[in-house]
Amino acid sequence: SPLMKRILLSVACLAAGVSQAQVKWDLPTGYAANTFQTQNNQQFAKEVDELTGGKLKITLHPGGSLYKANEIKRAVQTGQVPAAEFILSGAANENALYGVDSVPFLASSYADAWRLYQVARPAQEKLLASQGMKLLYSVAWPGQSLYSNKPIQTPADLVGTKMRAYNPTSTRIAQLLKAQPVTIQLSELGQALATNTVNNFLTSSASGVESKLYEQIKYFYPVNAWLPRNATVVNQKAFDSLDKSLQDAVLKAAAAAEKRGWESSERLDKEYLKELAAKGMTVAEPSDALKKEFARIGTTMTEEWVKAAGADGKAIVDAYHKR
User: Fold this and answer.
1) How does residue 51 score in pLDDT terms, banded at 50, 70 and 90?
2) CA angle in degrees (0–180, nearest 5) for 11-13-17
3) pTM of the predicted protein model
């Protein structure tokens, strides 16, 4: 009957609509919209949209707007959000393997940081998988360098100063330098400097420009202590629920994002250093005394990290040193 045909037709249309239904993912990050990492994620979302013909829409939530920075990993791990970006070393206290890229003075250049990432990646992917996450891509920030409100000539100049810490590594460095670690999120750093709650800290040239730290701090030493990596991950169940063509699109866009992210990071680091100097900061090579002290700390902390990370950690450091 015509009525039956119409009913069957509308059922068929509904079924087609379901299979073509748009998938929507939220992707929270703790980083501000103007950071190159967030912009890289934005480009990733745009490419996924294009590659899937709009079937997978990823909405970015920068600046800790959906979840606070320190809640993001748990949110994606437990499936509260399908995808997310976080700094790997922020989770080093739950497993040392998350902190491989923030072992100080182990990898102090882009080439070395990339090599360290390649040897560490299988172990880190396995660890993420054990927590229900799949790594999409990981991009290094510019090296963590020393900002100070006073000139630093020797290690003695750091003794007793208030040094910003944001993870176990930065806390331990402060202790080894005989400074006093103060835990402050990047978003609160300006305020902490204004009130003299913090005298110095290690962070990237990128943060110096993006957070306008040059307005409050005058000395910069490019020590490149380590190049910490952010990871953009997806909840494994969310990924598995996509059909194959959508999965392929996500992985293709992810590979492009990783390449683009590393290239941007290295290019921008050079630009940011120029900008810090142009904004009136004194950008100076660290003294030999300071370099020697940092190398000593590096050796100590690499040994400590290998102990904490066990066989996997030792294998990574050994493979990395076999240039």
Assistant:
1) very high
2) 115
3) 0.84
